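Minutes, methods subgroup
Present: GH (chair), OT, SY

1. OT presented the first of two proteins processed in the latest run. Sequence and C-alpha cells recorded below as shown on screen.
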Amino acid sequence: MSKYTAITFAPVQGFIEKSRKLRDLYGSSYILSHLADRLCQEATTKWGLRVISPALINVTKGTPNTIMIRGNFQKTDAQDVFKKTWGNIVDECRLWIEDQLKEWDYCWREDWRQWHNYAWEFFWAQGETANEARQNLVELKRSRAWVGINWKGESSTLSGADAIAYPTMPKFNPKSGSYQKEDETIKQFYQALDQKIGEMYQLSNGSRGIIEPTEQLSIPELIKRLVTIEQVANKIGIQFPDQVHPTYKDLNRLEQNEKTGWFMGDGDSFGNYLQSLTKKEEFPTKEESNDYADHKSQEFSLAMRNWARDSFTDWVEENGEGRVIYAGGDDFLGVFYQIPKTKITTTNEEPQFEKLALTATQCLERFYKFPTVWKEHKEEVTVSVGFVWAYPGVPQRDVLQHCRRAEKAAKDDGKDRIAIRILFNSGNHLEWSCPWDYLKKIFTGYCDRSGGQNWTHLYNDIAVLKSRHAFDNQGAIAQALWEIYFPEIAKDWNLGNDKFLWNIDDDNKQRQSSGILGKQETLSQSFTDWFINLAKVGFHLYV
C-alpha cells in the first residue's frame, strides 16, 4: 500500500486572474483556500491521516492548493470531499439568490449544475515517499485532460450574452433571440439583486459595489462576488477573518484615474530546498527516514504559513495602504493603492474623505524593506517578485497577467530579485530587474548632472545616444554613463567584479550571491540593455 498521497486541483491561477474587481479576487482566493482546507480537515478528522503540508494553522485563508498526506487517502474519497465542497458553494449561492428574490421565475438550475460538475480538474497521485508522490503528481499534471464547459466561457464580458447569469438564461438563443429585449430583463435582475443586498446592510443607495446594477456576470463571476457577503459565506462555512463588507472600498482606477501597484511573488527552487532539508541525515530504516523528512517538511510549511499570516500581512497592509489578496506561504499576491485619509464632511450616510495619491516611489520604498521581512521566516531560501505599476485604464485581468509575467521574468533573469514593470494604458510596458541586495542602493545612489536626483537627465541622455546608435556594440558607453550617474556605487561595484555582475552558487546549487545580470552572458550587451532599462523605468517611477 502506498504511503503518501499528493493532491491538487486546477485551474487555480486562471480562476483568480479572471476577476473584474478586487472583491472578486478576494472571493476567488477564499474559495481556493476553502477547497484545500476542507480536503486537509477531512483527511485528518474523518480518515485519521496526517497532513504533512500545508501545515494546518488557525487560519483558512492562504491554504496552498497542493496537499501532501501521509497515508492512503483513496482517490474516490478525496474526490468526493472536493466535489461536495465545491458543490456546496455553488448550491448555496444559487439558493441564496432564489430565496432573496422569490418573485422571479427561475429556470437556470441546469446551467448551475454544469458549473457544479465540470468547473475543476482533480489530480491525485501516490508514492512510497513524499518526493515520489510529489513527482508522480507533477507527471500526472503534464498529461492532463481537462473536461470543461467553456462553450460559454469563464467571463460574460469576453464570450457574449449567452453566458450572463440571470433566472431565464437558458431561454435565450444568441443565434435567433434579440439581445436588446433580453438586456432589459438582465438589468432588472441585477438592479433587484443590488437593492436586496443594500437592504440587508441597511444602505439607502444599493449595495455600494458588491453587485453593480449595470453589471452582467457569468455564473463563476457571480459566485466569486456572492461569497464575500457575510450571510452567504456563513452558509458555506467560509470564515473571513476580515469581512469584506459594503464599507470596504473597492478599487475604481478608471473613474478616479488611480495608478496602482500590484505584485506577485514566489519562493525560488522550493522543491530543491525542501529535498536538501530532508536529506541531511542518514537513518537505519526507511520509516525513520520518512519520519524525519515529514518533520522537516511540516516545520518548513509551518514557518512559511506563519510568515504569510503575520510578517507579510503586516508589511503589505502597513498604514492601510495595501491588501493581501492571497498568501500561501511562499506564493503571494497583493496590491498597493491610495486610501482615504482625512474626513472632510458627513452630510449624508457615507462619510466623505480626501484622497492622497500613492506614488510609484512610495511603492518602491516599501520594497526596500522586503528582504528583511522575507528573512523573518528564518528559512535559507530566496524569493522572486514581479511588481507592476499599472496605469488606470488597464483592465484588472490584464494587470494580473502582467504580474505573472513580471514574476517569471524575475526568475528567468536569475531569481532572488524583483522585476519592475511599468504598464501603460495602451498595453505597452517597460521592464527592469534587479537583485534585492542592490535595489535600494541603486535608486538612492542616483545623482544627476546638477547633483540632484532628477531622472530626466539620464533618460534624455539615453534617448539622444540611442538615436545616434551610440550603444550599438559599444558597451563602454553604458559603462561610462554608469560611472557618471552612479559615482559612489560605481566605486564599490565596478564592472570587473564578478560578484556584482553574475550569480554565484555553491556546489549544492545554493545561492551565495546574486548579480545584476544573473546568468553569465556577453558582458557589454547584457549590461547595456540592463542599464538602458534602468534609465527608462527609473524615469517613470520618479516622474
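2. SY then presented the second protein from the same run.
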Amino acid sequence: MENSSIEKKQGLTHGVTSFLRALQPYLRRYRLPIVLILIGSILEMAYNALVPLSFKFLIDRALPSRSEDDLLMILLILVGGLVIVSLAALGRDYLYAKVGSGLLSDIRFRMFNHLQFLSMDYYARTQVGDILARFSTDMAGIEHSLTLAIPWGIVPALDVALSTVLLFALDWRLALVAMLVWPFCLIGPQFFAPRATAASYQRKQHEADTIAVIQENASAQGVVKAYGLERPAIAGFGERNTKLMRSSVRLSFLSALMERSAGIGILVLQVLIISAGAYMAFQGYLTIGTLVSFQALFLMLSYGLYNVAQFLPTVVQAGGGMRRIEELLQESPGVSDRPDARPLPRLSRHIALRDVSFSYTGKQPNLKGVNLQIPEGWSVAFVGASGSGKSTILNLLMRFYDPSHGCVSFDSHDLRQVTLESLRSQIGVVFQENFLFNTTIRENIRVGKLGASDEEVEAAAQAAEIHDFIMTLPEKYETLAGERGGRFSGGQRQRMAIARAILRRPAVLLLDEATSALDVAAEVAINSTLARLGRGCTMISVSHRLASVTDAQCIYVLHEGAIAEQGKHEDLIAKNGVYARLWHKQSGFVVRRAGEHADIEPSRLRSVPLLNNLSSDLLAEIAPFFVTELFPQNRLIVQQGDAGDRFYIIARGKVEVIREDASGGARRLAVLQDGDYFGEIALLQNIARTASVRALVPCLCLALHRGHFLNLIERVPDLYSQMVRIAQARNAALDDPVATENG
C-alpha cells in the first residue's frame, strides 16, 4: 500500500526520469557511442523535417514558375539527404545495438556479481524463482524498452522538437493553435502513468511469485507425488496465476489508456488544424504551399507525439523491472570484509568461541553463551537433537553469519577482523547434500582449488577412494555430473565432495552431517575414509548419529543452543546424562548384509514406553518379529488415512511427521531420527493413520506387523490399557506445537 501511494504521487516525468536515472551509471562507459547515436538521430530528424518543408518550395516556387533549376535543386537535396541519412542511420543502428547489448550485459553482470557477495541470510529469505525473475522477465522489459527507444522514443521526440520550431517559422498564428496538442496529448498519460507504474511493479512481483512456485514445484516433485499434493499444488498455482492475470489486465488496460488518451487528442487537433488552416488559406492569410507544409509538419509532430505516447507504457513497464533490479542491488551483505580486514595466518594453535550467542531471526535464540576451545589438529564433534545449534556453529566458523554476541576466533584472531578469502581458503567442507555442478567430474573436484593440476585432482580422488570408480566411466574424469550431480549415487557424490575438500589441503575440515543421507554401507565406508583423511588437520564434525563420532577427541553435546556436556565418548557415557540417553536410544541395533538388514536387541525394546513393562523373556520372544524395511530418500513410509497395520522403529535414518488439514495444507509435527519410533497410535486403536511419515534420508526401519502385535496383546491382558494411555499422551504432544518443536 505504501509503495502504491508513493507511485500515485509521482507523475509521468518523474517515472521516466527515474528510469533514466537508474540507467545513468551504466551509460557512462558508452559516452562516445551515445554522442554518435545522437548525431545520427539528429540527421534523421532533420531529413524527416526537410521532406514536408520541401512541399512549400515545390508548390509556391518550383511548380508555379515551372523552373527546372529549382525543381532539380530540391530533388537533388532530397536524394542526397536520403543517401547521407541512410548511411548515418545504418551506422547509428549498429552502434545502438552494441550499446544496448552491452548495457544489458553490464546489468546482468552487476546483479550476478552482487549476488556472489550477499550473505546466506539473503538466500534463506529469498525464493530462487524471485531471483531468476530479475534475470528473465525484469531484464526482458528493460531490453524491450531499449530496443524501441530509437524508433519510438528518441527519433520521434527529436521530430517533435524540430517540427515545433518549423511550425512557428511557417505561421506563428496557426502554430499557436497547433500547440494545443501538448496538453491534449500529455494530460492522459500524466494521469495514467503513475498508476501504470504501480501496476507494472505489482505485475512483476506476481510474475516472480508465479515463477518461484513453478521452480519449487519442479524441484519437489518427489514430495508432491509421495504426499499426493498434485491438487493442492494446482490450486496454489491457480491462485497465483489468477493474481498474475488480474495484474496483467490492469497493466495492459492502463497502458492502453495512456496511448488512447494521447491519440484522441491528436485526432481532435488534426481536424482543428485542417479547418483553421483551410480557412486562413481561403482568406488569403496563407499560401497553399505553406498550408501543405504546415499540415505535413503537424502530422509529423502528431505522429511523433503518438509514437512517444505508445513508447511510454514500455518505459513504465521497464521502470517496474528496473526498480526490482535496484532493490536487489541495494541489498547489503550481512557479512563482508571490514575496511581494515587483514589476511588470516594459517591456523596453528586453536579455534575458540567466547560467550557466543546467535539468532537467525533476532527472536528465537539458536546459540546461548557458548564457550569452547578446539586445539589445532584435534578431531571434535558436535552432537545433539535436531535444532540444538550444531550446524549453526559450523555456519559461524565459516562466517556465513556473525555472532549476535561474543567472538569466534582462529588463533585469537577475531573472524570479523580478517578477510573472508583468507579464512575460507583454510577450510574444506563436506555438507550433508553436496552440490555437483553440471560440468565434468574433474572440474567439480577442482572447485576445491581452481588452479590445481590434473595430477593433483586425481590424487585427491584417489585419497577419497573414488578414482577407481571414475576410471570405469567411458569418459573418465571428463564425464558430466548432470544437474546437481544426478548421474551419481549419494555415496559417489559424497566422495567427490570429499576429494574437493581435501584438494585444498585445509587447515580445518568441517563435516556437516556428511554421511546422514547415505545408506549404512556407504556411511561406514565414508566414515573410514574421513577418519584417515582427517589426520593432519583440525576436523570438526556435526552429526546426530553418535556411532560415527565415538573416536573424537572431544564431543560437545548441545541442548537448546547451549553446551550441556563435553568430553570423550567413554566419559560422557559414564556421566549418564544427555549424551548417554542419546547413545542408548541409538544403540541396540545390529546392522548386517551391507546395511540391508537389521536386528533389534531385546533389551533395546524396553526403552520403548509401550513395551517397557514386559518381561525379558517376552521381549526376547518379540524381537525376532521385527522385520527390516528399507526406504530411499523422499519415499513415503506411511500415508495419512491408510490402515494402521505396522509399528516402526528407526534403526538408521531421519523422517518427518506431517499432518494434512481439510484444505490440503500440511504441517510438520516432528522430525524423528535414529532410535525414535512411530505408528503405535494407529496400531493400538485399529484406526487410519493420523499423519504421514516421509523419509528425509535413506532409512533402515524395523517394523512390527499387526498380527504379531495382536498376539502380544492377548498374552498380556493389562498391556493394552497401558499402551492406550501412553499413546494418548504422545498424540497430545504431537498436537502441541511447542511440545513438538522442543521434542
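Chair's summary of item 2: The first strand starts at residue 350 and ends at 358.
Next meeting: continue with the remaining queue.
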